[in-house]
Amino acid sequence: MNKMDYMEVTLPNYSYVFNFEEEFIHQDTRVWMMNNWTNCFYYCGIYMILIFGGQHFMASRPKYELRGVLSLWNTLLASFSIIGFTRTAPELIHVLRNYGLYHSVCIPSFIEQDRVSGFWTWMFVLSKLPELGDTVFIVLRKQPLIFLHWYHHITVLLYSWFSYTEYTASARWFVVMNYCVHSIMYSYYALRAMRYSPPKWISMVITALQLTQMIVGCAINVWAHQYLESGQAECHISRVNIKLSLMMYFSYFVLFARFFHKAYLGGKSSSKSGKKAYANGNGHIAAADYSNEKLKAN
């Protein structure tokens, strides 16, 4: 299947297309990313200096509550994720329904055609930079900062920006799944920051969704690898990308599974720790606010 084949596919029937979506030009953003994606290494370096330097700075100082700012931050991210999900999910559903699994994994139909999905994919990639700000709340509120949090933020940023330069076809899966989980997760934390008390089981469901996301992410990469190795059809994803993505998703799965076990299945001691952290407020591993931090799944 060549480029002309996947440029001729039909598009989802969007009820409305905004002007800024209609004016979106894929090639311009791809050229920009190809010229600038390596800057994210500098951003990650600055991020590491700020968060660990910030922890040292806050060690002898009282914590900040920041509940109002945190409520606004989570509300904005929840709204962004909900909109992103509603604008990208139709393309994935349309492709699966009309063209099947192979097309959804290997053929980037949004190239130069689906400007709606393309625009929100671009927004998704860019959003990984400001999302580093999640960690600021952990540092200023003097909450525990564990490896999974900053490791996740850094690797998601690096992988997302790199993948955009290749127009990786399987990215449609990753983008839709991430938007979906974030829609629920940030809404939950916005309510918590506003002092509402959603049922605790919701956080467990969110962590289960995160684990499911990791499993699906690994499966997508395995399928892409099989398509490439068969040599029977074109698959628009590089072997390097598959290796990086598979390692990333598998590492997330191991770390989130470990967290899930400690938070929910580790016995009385884990249960007490989970309840204590849950009572303290905002977290980002979506489970029981077990470590009082913000963790997102990609």
UniProtKB/TrEMBL annotation:
Q: Quote the Pfam families the UniProt record gives.
A: ELO
Q: What is its main location?
A: membrane
Q: What is its EC number?
A: 2.3.1.199
This protein's GO cellular component annotations are: endoplasmic reticulum membrane
Tell me the compartments it is located in: Membrane
Q: Name one GO biological process term.
A: fatty acid elongation, saturated fatty acid
Topology versus the membrane: Multi-pass membrane protein
- Annotated PROSITE patterns: ELO
Offer an example of a GO molecular function term for this protein.
Answer: fatty acid elongase activity
InterPro entries named in the record: ELO_CS, ELO_fam
Q: Which UniProt keywords apply?
A: Fatty acid biosynthesis, Fatty acid metabolism, Lipid biosynthesis, Lipid metabolism, Membrane, Transferase, Transmembrane, Transmembrane helix
Q: Which reaction does it catalyse?
A: a very-long-chain acyl-CoA + malonyl-CoA + H(+) = a very-long-chain 3-oxoacyl-CoA + CO2 + CoA
Q: Where are the transmembrane segments?
A: 40-58, 145-164, 170-189, 201-224, 244-265
Please give the family membership noted in the entry. Answer: Belongs to the ELO family.
Q: Which PANTHER family match?
A: ELONGATION OF VERY LONG CHAIN FATTY ACIDS PROTEIN 6, FATTY ACID ACYL TRANSFERASE-RELATED
- The protein depicted here goes by the name Elongation of very long chain fatty acids protein
Organism placement in taxonomy = Eukaryota, Metazoa, Ecdysozoa, Arthropoda, Hexapoda
